[in-house]
Amino acid sequence: MRKVEKKSFGYAILMSFAHIIHRASYRCLNVNGLENIPKNKPIIFAANHQNALLDPLMIIFATNLQPVFLARADIFKKKFIARILNYLKIAPVYRMRDGKESLEKNAESFDTSVRILKNNRILALFPEGAHTNLKSMLPHKKAIPRIVFMAAENTNFDIDIQIVPVGINYTHYYKFRRDAVINFGEPIGTKQYYNQYHTEGEVKASNTMRDDLYKAIDKLVVNVQDKARYDIFEQAFEIAKPLAAKKLNIKNTSRNFVKIEKFISEKIKQHIENSDQQSIDNTQEKAQKLKQLKRKTGIDKAAIMKHPIRISTIILRTLTIVLLLPFSVLGILAHGWIFYLTRYPIRKFIKDPQFYSTFAFGLTLVFYPLWVVGLFFIFLAIVHSWLWALVLLVLSFPSGILAWELLQLIRQTFQGIRLQKKNKHNATLLGLHQELIQFYNQIISA
Q: How far apart are CA 361 and CA 11, in angstroms?
């Protein structure tokens, strides 16, 4: 861990390739606020944490920098994994749940953190200390204030550390071709806390810094704190965005989804505060039941929102599928099987769904380069031309993306047709959806 902060050419090469795989996983990836990152100053990136090891990648690829991350120590248990993580500029931080005696091991990590900041390098932490599978921030731990004040003491309180709040937002945590928005907020200068540290002590100064940081990140993310009624918020994020976008007079696009969801969240929160308990409990039951029915029937929000599906739509989609299918065949044959194997079979061995994307990304990073080389030689054996083999290899990648998008179109079309059938499940599903639409329309329009 002594050289973890030094710039590495090998790390840069690895991340360049990883960046390609990472970007292909998203349909739209929007980065805002890069101008807020200070130049030539010690920096701490402080981000919310929702998607395991993909969150660090979001910061790395958005900034094109080489920050050192502090991560929970339990992922460092195996020596081989620990070496890989250290190469990837990730250092362990021990928590009380790792055992009281383990906390003594934090000394090296904190010393490394202080050295990084003293050398005007970049540190990155997730102040929640754990990830969550909800669009909700956990309370912040004290690691960042502790590191800041250790570095301050080490430099006679001369160091000007800048904490950059980061908000990472996903439309989904592990679906391929999801959308994401990463927001970099205005930096928080830490010198403002030094006086309180001297006059009122470290605890009060740490609490002030921690509270300020929480508020700063809260502005950049969707943060639902009402866990008991979370389904009301979650279903609103799925089905009420067009209503909210219209109210805000903005387009319902991936670039705006954080702004829209924050608006929806605030509207629901206000409504809950001003409504009777029984009414809200009934709405929570409806939202929960709708969510369960979607899972049971396998019908997603896109099909429900476009119900009833018109015959003209079915015909148009069928023609689109027929026309584009020949261009997708290369991608299906070349990449379909390895795409499936690096994502789905492993899920039954992973207890925490937030790690689905992490393991899929890791397996893709390991096996895809080998497959690409092998695929080139397969094409070469077929066409007997280096040039045409290379052309086929290059064309196979957009063909693979097209195949995925075509598959989604086929799924949505079949779901729309299934919804046309008159049965109990469909009637209940559509009835609950309509009731919730009316509920959301009422509170959003207020």
A: 17
Does 435 have pLDDT greater than 80?
Answer: yes
Asked whether the beta carbons of 30 and 168 are under 8 A apart, the reply is: no
Whether the Cβ atoms of residue 20 and residue 361 lie closer than 8 Å to each other:
no
Per-residue pLDDT at 101: 58
Letter string b/e over residues 197-234, b meaning 16 or more CB atoms within 10 A of that residue's CB: beeeebeebbebbbeebbebbbebbbbbebeebbbbbb
Q: What is the pLDDT of residues 48-66, one digit of tens each?
A: 999 988 999 999 999 999 8
User: How far does Cα 438 stand from its chain's mean position?
Assistant: 30
The partner residues of 150 in beta bridges, in order of sequence, read none
Q: Residue 13's pLDDT is what?
A: 87
Residues 6+ apart with CB under 8 A from 418: 297, 299, 303, 426
CA–CA separation, 96 vs 173, rounded Å? 27
Q: Are 188 and 165 in contact (CB under 8 A)?
A: yes
- How is residue 401 written in tokens? 């993306």
Q: Which amino acid, one-letter code, is at 264? A: I
Max Cα distance, the chain (Å): 78
Q: Tell me the sheet residues that pair with 46.
A: 125, 165
Answer yes or no: are the C-beta atoms of 164 and 44 closer than 8 Å. Answer: yes
Of residues 296, 300, 289, the one with CA closest to residue 431: 289
